[in-house]
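Students often ask what a holo structure prediction actually looks like on paper. The answer is less mysterious than it sounds. You provide the chain, you provide the ligand, and the output is a string of discrete structure tokens encoding the 3D arrangement of the protein together with iron/sulfur cluster.
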Amino acid sequence: MKIIKNEPATLAEKSCRISRYLRHPQTVNEKRINSTIKKPFKFYPKELIGELAVFIFGSFQCNKFLQGTCVPCFYSGFPHSKKQKKDIYNALLKQTKYILNNFNKLVIKHQKKNCYEYNLYRRFKNKGLNILLLTGEGSFFADHEIPQAYRNKILNSVWKHALKNKLNLQVQCEAKAEDILNAEKKGEFKEYKKLAKDLNLTLEIGLESANDFSRNTIYAKDLQLKDFEKAINITKKHSLITDAFVFCGFHSMTEKEILDDVKKTIDYLREKNIGIRLMFPNIQRHTINHLLYHYKKYNLIDIRTARELIRYLIFNNNKNNYNYIKGQDWILGGLVSNPTPLLTIFNNPNALSCKKCCRMFEQAIYKLVKTYDPETFERYLKQMKKCKCEKKYQAFLSQAPKKPLQERVKNNLEFADKLKKDYLALKSLKTS
Ligand code: SF4
Ligand SMILES: [Zn+2]
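The corresponding structure tokens follow.
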């Protein structure tokens, strides 16, 4: 990680050090399995298509995770194989075979037959559409997780499968900005020219926030905005559909600050014509956010903050923007994940909003992701307006913080640093 000797960078460095410590028992002491991984890990977030099929190829951990970046992340809590590197990489092809041999069960059965709300290329006219997301633990384009030659084979076998079975597909791939820069240097995207169109190849890039302090100090992303911009210029040059992940659960920030931060990031991405994948925070074990949550120094955003952000997404939508869901440039994420989170904004016992409102909001969100209909969403929310907790939330939102943000971050990191040993000794963590 590049270290610039100023306080935000020093805080980011400290944050990475603490995260490495908290992740340590799950990485270094991890019990590795004897065999290779023959099936990818998977989960199914609800989306307009029905259920999106997310496949996570098992090989090696995300480098960033090992460096301690990305504060809320516990993606690498997957099992890993003891086998040699070459066997582990060859198993990536077995994992691909497993997906393709079971495509009907793993993908098609989870999705609507026809989904004409998608503005995507269909080689087979008047035929259905299916969507899958492929990633390594960190990125489909990280060479140490999925080397270029394997990536090429995976994409080509999916392409051949689609042509042979007359399937219209959208293949989304998670990618880090730095991996896109590397792939471009090697001329990799040129190799995908033909298949990219048939597969509606879509890149999902982590940005989290357009603000340097939120992104690189609080989230500890280790990503310069100029590199993100270079990456999106590359994906545009190759006509690849591109979305960016936006996070709305930074620790140390007030909900008002989070609202401002996320809205600015949404504006930034809209200006750049990039799709928005708004990620709701959840609590994963072995993270600074969980530690701070446990000792009551951090809370997940309230559902009413999420409501405000969604309204901003759906009502300020620039209809002319480049997007693949007709008239929309957003997707909601983080509602389910693998590993399953400890807590979400819907079942957070420390939420300001009452349980009934949380349940109502959860239903509203799931209706929205399945219909993209803002009116239905608003209808579900009407009752929430009448509840006592609405006033409580508005009063809470107007409270000004007593200290500047940088100081709050510093204090929270100092606290996490002091308590990290006690935190790892917690019984609840050991039995997890
Ligand atoms: S790049 Fe992705 S998987 Fe890796 S640490 Fe960051 S959020 Fe986690
Ligand atoms: Zn309520």
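Residues 7-342+406-430 form a domain with the TIM Barrel fold (CATH 3.20.20).
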